[in-house]
Design a protein that fits this description.
By secondary structure, the chain is of the alpha/beta class. The protein is built from ten helices and nine strands. The chain has helices spanning 12-25, 31-43, 59-73, 78-82, 106-114, 134-142, 155-167, 209-212, 228-240, 256-265; strands spanning 84-87, 90-93, 124-128, 147-152, 174-178, 189-194, 241-250, 269-275, 281-287. The strands form two sheets. The protein has a seven-stranded mixed sheet, with helices on both faces. A hairpin with a 2-residue loop joins β1 (84-87) and β2 (90-93).
């Protein structure tokens, strides 16, 4: 049933009612939630649950909210509108050159952490396709003695990751460079993580507008079969992993087996596949033996 909203009232309840209807009509998946999130952001309220303490909007506040609402109705994600995304309990600034981190990617962080027993954390971390830097920063947070390198082909993404690391207090332990995966790197790393592009080129147009309009295509397009990045990464992982080291790669649906085979063909030892909270196989782990 369509709610009956006062078309002219500036009361919080009526404003959110109208905004919810507008977002629903635009095809937004969670219109009520997003309307309240954007209204709270517009008013500088720390959490939507506190909105009801405000009686009504001023005309100026209503105009500011309308501008944000128009962007969401055009299917721009709330995180892009706010300019930040929470990941692993930390806030990461976003930019047009970096992928918007998804909650599923926390499975990659969890898998990397579980690969190293307590008391024997890795010392050197490599994050390939670092984007916002969220994966590397999450691991640096959990492994306070480790240092890390983040690589991205996008100059803008590498700069975004560098700013995020600085804002979160990791500047002294993280460095970020622009490059084609790991081709210009030397040395050995105890853990290598990556969330590479894995959407088949022919499937990009069918993605939700929040993704195909606002995430950078280079961070999504995995080539004809979605596996192009893994073919490029596999030999580099074998070259750069330290003895006893682990590589953890995020994968798309039904890609885990093929990615595991690519890694084994490159000389790595298959370790495990980890699923996300929805049960989708999300992370492939492989490594280099000690001998």
């Amino acid at each position: 049933m369509t709610p009956n909203c006062d078309a002219h009232s500036l009361r919080i309840a009526d404003v959110t009612c109208r905004a919810t209807k507008r977002l629903r009509d635009a095809g937004v998946e969670s219109p009520a939630r997003d309307a309240r999130l954007l209204l709270a952001h517009s008013l500088g309220v720390p959490h939507p649950s506190l909105l009801d303490r405000h009686g009504q909007l001023t005309a100026e506040q209503a105009l500011q909210f309308e501008q944000l609402l128009a962007r969401r109705a055009a299917r721009e994600p709330v995180s892009r509108i706010k300019g930040v995304r929470e990941f692993w309990g930390m806030e990461f600034a976003l930019s047009p050159g970096a992928l918007d981190p998804r909650p599923d990617t926390e499975t990659l962080v969890e898998a990397a952490l579980a690969a190293f027993p307590a008391g024997a954390p890795p010392q050197r971390i490599l994050d390939l396709g670092t984007g916002s830097g969220c994966i590397l920063c999450a691991l640096l947070h959990e492994w306070p003695a480790a240092t890390g390198v983040g690589v991205d082909r996008s100059v803008l993404a590498a700069a975004t990751a560098r700013r995020n690391a600085g804002a979160l207090g990791f500047a002294a332990r993280a460095s970020f460079v622009t490059g084609d995966w790991a081709t210009a790197l030397a040395g050995r790393f105890d853990v290598i993580v990556s969330n590479p592009p894995y959407i088949a080129s022919g499937d990009l147009a069918a993605l939700e507008p929040e993704v195909n309009r606002y995430d950078p295509a280079a961070a999504l397009d995995g080539g004809v079969d979605g596996l192009a990045a893994y073919r490029a990464l596999a030999p580099q992982l074998a070259r750069l992993l330290a003895p006893g080291g682990t590589a953890a790669l995020e994968v798309g649906q039904r890609q885990a087996r093929e990615v595991a085979l690519l890694l084994v063909d490159a000389g790595l030892e298959f370790r495990a596949v980890r699923s996300d909270l929805s049960g989708t196989e999300r992370v492939v782990l492989a490594g280099i033996g000690l001998s």
